[in-house]
Amino acid sequence: MRQAGYGVTWGMNQPIIAVTGATGQLGSLVIEHLLKRVPATSVVAIVRNLAKAADLADRGISVRQANYTDPDAFEKALAGVDKLLLVSSSEVGQRAAQHRNVITAAKRAGVKLLVYTSLLRADTSSLDLAPEHVETEAMIKTSGLPYIILRNGWYTENYTASIPGAIAHGAFLGSAGKGRIASAARQDYAEAAAVVLVNPQLPGQVIELAGDTAYTLADLAAEISRQTGKTVPYRDLPSAEYRAVLLQAGLPEGLASGIASWDASAANDALFNEGRQLSRLIGRPTTPLAESVRVALQN
């Protein structure tokens, strides 16, 4: 047995797996999927706020505090870690610098596999989110660390979160036109990350992940109408008009501009992919749109 710091003792042959952003929307789900596959004592949750992770510590998980802006703290948090999931930072515009800190810390700590959550077809994507992911991918590839890059497609929750507002106002608004959206539930991507972290994988892979079946926003509106028994049509707006509506609804300017521009890219199939690598990785079909709508209506 070895003592790996932070008061946790692990077996010699059990790889230690760390997850950044472990209390976040994706990271917390990855933790849950890991716990179905490995003992809690082989999981490390890296968080900014220890208080938010008290429940993880109670379950026997080693909780360590580090911020993407502090490479020294991250190096300490990665002591004894074999595999690291770097969940991309939520701070758009600062991601590349923050990711560099984590990559540097991982190399210094001797991490044996770095898994990164990137963006679907990042190298060719028209989404304005892509450049920071491309820059991060390049940093990872030149770091010398063994890596696997998971290029996550859109989360279905990005759209189903708008269902209450659509019902209240009698229409689902957007600027995606007839663009095909091959999204999947956040749970699907989380399970894929857990599978890659637990099962032996060939390093150096870049895996494009998306939902099995694509839909348009008109299809989404039709499904909302079907499940609620209310008529909720899709209303397609010019990007500038959609941005103005979002601003009027109280969204911050940066987020409103982002959502409108992402829809504009979606109109040109930036969120479409038919490779079905995600379902093959998790060994089951991705969550159907109807199920995601059902869950959203229950919450």
Describe this structure in words.
The protein is of the alpha/beta class. It has two domains: 2-152, Rossmann fold, CATH 3.40.50.720; 153-184 and 210-273 and 285-292, UDP-galactose 4-epimerase, domain 1. The protein has 13 helices and eleven strands. The chain has helices at residues 25-35, 54-58, 71-77, 95-109, 130-143, 157-160, 163-169, 186-198, 217-228, 239-248, 253-266, 277-282, 289-298, and strands at 2-3, 9-10, 17-20, 43-47, 62-65, 83-86, 113-119, 147-152, 172-174, 205-209, 234-236. It has a seven-stranded parallel beta sheet, with helices on both faces. Helix 5 (130-143) links the parallel strand 7 and strand 8. It is globular.
| Largest beta sheet: strand ordering | 5-4-3-6-7-8-10
Compute the number of strand runs. 11
- Sequence of secondary-structure elements: EEEHEHEHEHEHEHHEHEHEHHHH
In CATH, the architecture of the largest domain is 3-Layer(aba) Sandwich
Tally of contiguous helical segments: 13
Rounded average pLDDT: 93
User: Which fold name fills CATH's third level, the topology of the largest domain?
Assistant: Rossmann fold
Estimated share of beta-strand residues: 15-25%
Shape label: globular
